[in-house]
Amino acid sequence: MNTSFSTIKLIRYAVAYVFITSGFMKLISTELANGFLNLGLPYPHIMLYVVVLLEIVCGLFILLNKAVNNAVIPLIAIMMAALLLTKLPSIHTGFLQFAFNARLDIVMIILLVILYNRSLK
């Protein structure tokens, strides 16, 4: 039982770290922000700030173990959109290249689902 708790805690810390740093980097890195703005999304500047806000706030909720099941839902949506918009286009270069490019997105989706399922118990 103690091992399971520590594992979930480590998953929470890792997931929170990824999303909080990702959110802040989109704010301070013009290269990351420009990449996001060029995805072809409607209202790209507003979408950028919405994603940044969600990543940081939901990351903090996960870090603090508050409303984790609610916090992971928008993050799963963000990761699915990132997978579809930024990684799926690379599938034309081959499945292995796509799998390599999508590895972090896939791992983060899996970890978010684990956190969601764990918070329901």
Automatic annotation (TrEMBL):
Alphabetic keyword roster: Membrane, Transmembrane, Transmembrane helix
* UniProt membrane topology term: Multi-pass membrane protein
Superkingdom of the organism of origin: Bacteria
| Subcellular location, record wording | Membrane
| Transmembrane feature ranges | 12-34, 46-64, 71-89, 95-116
Q: Does the keyword Ribonucleoprotein apply?
A: no
**In its UniProt entry, what is this protein called?**
DoxX family protein
